[in-house]
Amino acid sequence: MFALGRDGGDARVWWLVARQKAQGYDFLKPYARLSRAAYEALAAAGKQHGLVLAGHVPDAVGLAGVLAAGQKSIEHLDGWLFALVPADVTVPSTGGVHARLRGALPRLDAAKLPGLIAQTIAAGTWNCPSLIGYERLGALEHRAALAQRMQWLALVPPRDRRAMGSHAGRPDPNVHRGRLRDDPRGEPVACPGARSAVGGERADHRGHRHRRRLRHRGRIDA
Length: 222
Prior knowledge:
2 domains; 5-stranded parallel β-sheet; alpha/beta
């Protein structure tokens, strides 16, 4: 796993991947802000060095793109909601994730799900639905109640606490992500033949070991 600039050049990508291989890593973790060119270079370099992709779905690549590239796992069901937006609908490209979600959620086309699920199964890609994270995200809108239950809240840096409360008292039904039961992203998790990993990502050596254990137990492919 490593950090790569949004538009890292091909030479830098290949150098970083070779370095990660030499250091003993066995997969590469892309993030949402990678450009398509950087992601494609990462996939090519990973294939050359025997390192699979496992992580997020870059906005510039989309769900279909990472499935075509053979990405082995998708965190948080990234890319699924935006893959369900009809081709004639334009989702805002500015304003952050909340603006994008407001533009996408009212216009989802569930008829696209079967095709996407079939592509996921064919690619052998695992989905990690981040159940605990989504369950608890909604509670961040109510900091006062959260502070009474969670002693750890005082340990969160003030800037992060302010960001957590930026929507407090103003829950948006189009953005609220507290539960998956009414979320169309639950379909690829429940579909027979689809691969799901119940857990969460860890961007450190402990997460690296966690994935290694899952692989040794036959829960995730190499």
